[in-house]
């Protein structure tokens, strides 16, 4: 089932999420719905707050980018109860966008290497290191779990420059090819 994506300005996007318990009801269908929603919206990552949940769950699917980067071919991951334990490497700038902030793209600086602890879809624990674009996408989605959005990383002057566009999104004055939910 394709779920609506909550837009910038909705309070759920600013809440810090909570770890889920092993008996979380409907986890498998939820994950399926998140991947279906992600595919339909033509995104590469989706966090639970973006579909209105305060749970510490995110999904990433880089396989649509495999034609540009072959190592993304089978990179489809679930991160449950994720916690980044280390960010290091060099700080790199890259333009980012977000399904919850349609039509806006800004340059964001992030470390190019992370170590993250999480549970997979079968609730098996992992601790892994990710680098480069994988690290960037995971950090972007992880920020959602902490109530942070990519525009929080841009300079005050850049944020002022896009303020009117953000205000339109808050008001629901936006066109998307996917289902959305505003305040």
**Average pLDDT over all residues:** 97
Taken as a percent bin, the fraction of beta residues is: 25-35%
Query: What's the CATH superfamily, by name?
Result: Peptide deformylase
Separation of the first and last Cα atoms: 22 Å
State the order of secondary-structure elements, H for helix, E for strand: EHEEEEEHHE
CATH architecture: Alpha-Beta Complex
Main sheet: strand order: 2-3-4-5-6
Backbone CA Rg: 16 Å
As residue ranges, the low-confidence spans are: none
Structural classification:
alpha+beta
**At the third CATH level, what is the topology name?**
Peptide Deformylase
Shape: globular
Count of extended strands:
7
* Helix fraction bin: 10-25%
CATH class division: Alpha Beta
> Given the structure, what is the number of helices?
3
Largest sheet: 5 strands, antiparallel
What is the number of domains?
Answer: 1
């Amino acid at each position: 089932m394709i779920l609506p994506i909550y837009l910038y300005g909705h309070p759920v996007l600013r809440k810090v999420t909570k770890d889920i318990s092993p008996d979380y009801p409907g986890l498998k269908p939820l994950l399926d719905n998140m991947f279906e929603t992600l595919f339909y919206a033509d995104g590469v990552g989706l966090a639970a707050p973006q579909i209105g949940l305060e749970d510490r769950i995110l999904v990433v699917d880089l396989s649509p980018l495999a034609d540009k980067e072959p190592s993304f071919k089978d990179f489809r991951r679930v991160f449950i109860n994720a916690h980044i334990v280390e960010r290091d490497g060099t700080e790199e700038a890259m333009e980012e966008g977000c399904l919850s902030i349609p039509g806006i793209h800004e340059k964001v600086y992030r470390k190019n290497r992370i170590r993250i602890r999480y549970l997979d879809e079968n609730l098996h624990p992992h601790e892994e290191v990710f680098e480069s674009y994988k690290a960037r996408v995971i950090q972007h989605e992880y920020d959602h779990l902490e109530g942070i959005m990519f525009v929080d990383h841009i300079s005050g002057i850049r944020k002022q420059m896009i303020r009117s566009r953000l205000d339109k999104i808050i008001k629901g004055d936006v066109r998307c090819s996917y289902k959305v939910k505003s305040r």
